[in-house]
Structures are given as structure tokens and as C-alpha cells.
Amino acid sequence: MKIKKIIVSQPDPLSEKSPYMELASKHNLKIDFRPFIQVEGVSAKDFRQQRIEILLHTAVIFTSRTAIDNFFRICEEVRITVPENMKYFCITESIAHYLQKYIVYRKRKIFFGPGNFVQLMDVIMKHKGEKFLVPLSDVHKTEIPKTLDKAKIKYTKGIFYRTISSNLSDLKELDYDVLVFYSPSGIKSLFENFPSFNQGEISIAAFGDNTAKAVKDNGLRLDIKAPTPACTSMTQALDEYIKKYNKDHK
Questions:
Q1: What is the model's pTM?
Q2: Measured distance CA(76)–CA(54) in Å, rounded
Q3: Both 202 and 100 in a single domain?
Q4: pLDDT digit string (tens) for 44-84?
Q5: Residue 211 backbone phi and psi in degrees, to 5
């Protein structure tokens, strides 16, 4: 049997020019998008229990738009007015521009990196005297606190939102040829929603080392991994796999 149906554990692409649309057209596939995880903000009560004094910080590090939304939500709920001289360090320029939703955009207090946390550290190191607040999810990359610790940056890590499993009960069964995952939380959600899941002939794709590890740690077979030197994106990896698979299963 050829690969005909794929489910991607992410929201629908915003653009019709998504590489997934090209992949579907190229191989005559049905591709469904369904987030296996979702984010919910922590309550003001739970935030207060972390005993974080936001106003004792002079800068905030944002790794996502979700972090921005939940930082300003918490500030409003605990009735804190963020001072105008607060500095913001964002992992990308697009995340930095998203701040305009909440503040007047002034370049002298907004800084951004070219795309990953290690590169953002080059900017942070020029402002070592600041006391940083890092709003994160309960599930986050350990490289962030580790990198800050190594550089001896003064910071506070705060849990402002949580990653939880989506309710997938309407799917009833996973009638797909390929399941595509982008985070370990997606694998956790798979088993929470389908406790008796048996992989069988279903191919599993994982993006990133942590996701690939979660696949294997849960006793599943990893068939497709990205990024690799040959395939820098998930759609490239899927394209190569499908070409070979469908050729072998004529």
C-alpha cells in the first residue's frame, strides 16, 4: 500500500503556499493538520505561588509570541504596570515586532537575535548588567537556563503558561499512513488520547532530536527524522521518504 494519508500534529498552515500543500499535490496525498497539544495560561494564583517579583527585573527575554501574550496577561491580572524603561530581548525580529500589540515599539529598548537562543545570547551579553525575567512554558528547552547559567547572567525563570494534551476523541482511530510530530509533548498526547496505540505499518516522523528521542523512548519505530544534512525541513524528509516508500510498495 502506498502512502496516501498523513496527519501533521500542528495547526493548519496560514498560507496556501505551504510546503505541505506542494507535498500533497506532488504525491496526491490527503494531509490533515491537527494540533496534538495546546497552551493554557497559568492562573494569577498559580503565578503568585512562584513568588516572582516582576518589577524587580529590568529586562524580559521572549522566545515566542505565546510568551509575550502570557507575560502581559499576567501583568494585567496581578495589576502590575510594566515600566516604560523595561527592556525586551526577543529570539527573532518577527517576535520583537509582535510586541507592538502591547507597547510602543522603540528600538532603544527592544533587541532581537537572528533566529535561535544561542545567537540571541550575543545580544544579551552586551547587557549583562540587566536582571532578566524569562517567561516560559512548563515544558521548555533546557538549553535556555543552561546557557544563561553558563554565561552567569542574572535571571529568573517563570512559568507563565502550560503545554497540555489536546482532546482528540473525535478522531476515534488514527487512520493514517504517517504521523508527523514536532515535540515530545505530541508523543505524550498520542498515548493519552490513544492508550492502546499500536504502530504497526504506520510511519512516524519526528522533527528535532528531543522529539526523535521521545518516539524511541515510548517504544515506537522512528521512520523519518528531520532536520538532517540532506533534508533541512520536515517536508523535504517526507518527500524523500514517500518517493522511496511508494516505489517499494507498488
A1: 0.76
A2: 12
A3: no
A4: 999 999 999 999 999 999 999 999 999 999 999 999 999 99
A5: -70, -45
51: left (phi over 0), alpha (psi -120 to 50) or beta: left
Same domain, 47 and 142: yes
The cell for 73 is 496577561
Q: Which domain holds residue 78?
A: 40-163
Residue 81 has what DSSP assignment?
A: P
Task: With CA atoms as reference, report the closest residue to 6 among 164, 210, 186, 242.
Answer: 242
> What does the CA dihedral 122, 127, 130, 133 come to, rounded to 10 degrees?
-30
The phi and psi torsions of 132 (rounded to 5 degrees) equal -95, 145
Task: Indicate whether 131 and 181 sit together in one domain.
Answer: no
Q: Is 149 left (phi over 0), alpha (psi -120 to 50) or beta?
A: alpha
Q: Give the number of domains in the chain.
A: 2
Same domain, yes or no: 74 and 109 = yes
Q: Give how far the C-alpha of residue 245 lies from the chain's centroid of Cα atoms, to the nearest Å.
A: 29
